[in-house]
Design a protein that fits this description.
Blueprint lengths: L3 E4 L6 E4 L38 E6 L2 E5 L12 E5 L27 E6 L13 H17 L5 E8 L11 E7 L4 H17 L3 H10 L4 E4 L3 E4 L10 E5 L11 H22 L4 E6 L13 E6 L6 H6 L2 E3 L3 H10 L5
The chain binds zinc ion (ZN) (3 copies).
Length: 340
């Protein structure tokens, strides 16, 4: 393979796939996961007082799960998933304040919501090694929170794993930020999907699924989900997970599909952790905004391993260099899929 410049499926975003200096998994000298902190973990059971009161808890109940909450003075124990407000919120829920601005200095008040989802009482129960039932509870939590935050324009659910990818605590957790404005990447994907719909009368992601299923970038599929390394991957070992059925939001997942999504997560992250020695990564869901008609959009999860540093070229041009072709990444990920 020689070097080439690839365009994202639908976005105007270009990536230099640098095959001539291609890196294989062994070239990323991953060190085994070191515990980032030695201090008491505020997310571990028994330390609930160290965090603000939980606004949502899952408690075991008669073989099922029931929802509960902490109060200011009392912290509930025995939880299996715990959601708390972020101590250092990027956005806060309150009445917006009018701010002075001019044409060159536009601004909005920082209203919104920022929560942390503690995914398990077990410190190290991450998607790559979690019990599938526990991942199902986390997926259920995502869905409950999406519903609860539907008054905001957009809700972003994301996860940072390990310090190098931005996680300040190593306990298994994801985050959720509700914003009063649709973020740029989402609005770009919405606009490109609408253009595709107009031109081809269909959904680009449904077509991408058909094409990538038979490509060298294919990684995994079960009845309801598919994973592949995208054509113009920005990051080495980037992969995407999509529902095979056209759905615009996570809220459309039925019980069985949630199960299959959880298993797909466990399988793909299991393989990623095996190949690259539990690398730092981030992931984020791309879903339709809460307001307006966006049924044409196809929700998905994008996973970005952090193995390279974006620097001068990327930051100053918004063009990217990826030294691991997605075909090479997919091949390695596919070979080491665990059987769940
Ligand atoms: Zn912990
Ligand atoms: Zn679709
Ligand atoms: Zn996307």
């Amino acid at each position: 393979m020689s070097n080439e410049i690839r365009k994202d499926y639908i976005l105007d975003r270009w990536v230099i796939i640098a095959s001539e200096r291609a890196k294989r998994p062994t070239d990323y000298s991953g060190k085994p996961h070191e515990r980032a902190e030695t201090k008491t973990c505020p997310f571990c059971p028994g330390n609930e007082k160290m965090t603000p009161p939980a606004f949502l808890l899952y408690l075991p109940s008669d073989g099922g799960i029931k929802r509960a909450k902490d109060s200011e003075g009392r912290r509930v124990r025995n939880w299996v998933v715990r959601c708390i407000p972020n101590l250092y919120p990027a956005l806060t829920p309150r009445k917006p304040v009018a701010l002075v601005e001019d044409e060159l200095h536009r601004r909005r008040d920082g209203v919104g919501a920022h929560g942390v989802i503690i995914e398990s009482p077990n410190h190290d129960e991450h998607p790559n090694n979690a019990r599938p039932e526990q991942i199902e509870l986390v997926v259920q939590t995502y869905s409950d929170l999406l519903k609860d935050l539907s008054r905001w324009e957009y809700v972003s659910i994301f996860r940072n794993h390990r310090k190098e990818a931005g996680a300040s605590l190593s306990h298994a957790h994801s985050q959720i930020i509700a914003t009063p404005k649709v973020p740029r990447r989402i609005s770009d994907e919405l606009a490109a999907s609408r253009r595709w719909l107009k031109r081809k009368d269909g959904c680009p992601y449904c077509e991408i699924i058909q094409k990538e299923r038979d490509s060298t970038r294919f990684i995994f599929e079960n009845r309801s989900f598919i994973a592949f390394a995208p054509w113009a991957s920005i990051y080495p070992f980037e992969f995407w997970l999509l529902p095979k059925k056209h759905q615009h939001t996570l809220l459309q997942l039925r019980g069985k599909e949630k199960k299959e999504f959880s298993r797909a997560l466990r399988t793909c992250f299991g393989s990623l952790a095996t190949i690259l020695n539990d690398p730092p990564y981030s992931f984020g869901f791309h879903i339709a905004p809460n307001h307006g008609q966006h049924e044409y959009f196809h929700w998905h999860l994008e996973v970005y391993p952090k193995l390279s540093i974006q620097a001068g070229f990327e930051n100053s041009t918004d063009m990217f260099i990826n030294v691991t072709p997605p075909e090479v990444a997919a091949q390695s990920l596919k070979e080491l899929l665990p059987h769940i």
